[in-house]
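Revision sheet: structure tokens.
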Amino acid sequence: MRQGVVYYNDVVAGIISEMENGRYEFGYDDYYFSNSNLPAISVTLTKSKQQHYSKSLFPFFFNMLSEGANRKTQCRILKIDEEDDFGLLLKTGATETIGAITIEEINGT
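Predicted:
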């Protein structure tokens, strides 16, 4: 299983995981989930429930990835398969994002 910590403006919002069966899970951190002053990270990953599941990488996270020539260059430099969306997210999500959300890879998972 591969995982990353999801931050909203440097506050831990939750954990995104790629499960062994190829499915994905996003779970809000307990503090973040219970704090009504902190917003949902996206309109599709609401705080009406703490855990979210998907058969493919959540569109919200997929849309954070680079495309075209930039993606090819990143994958070549980072030695990531171009089809490995989650791997690319984990390797670029801490520094190559626009907006409030960043993702930091959890090593050893």
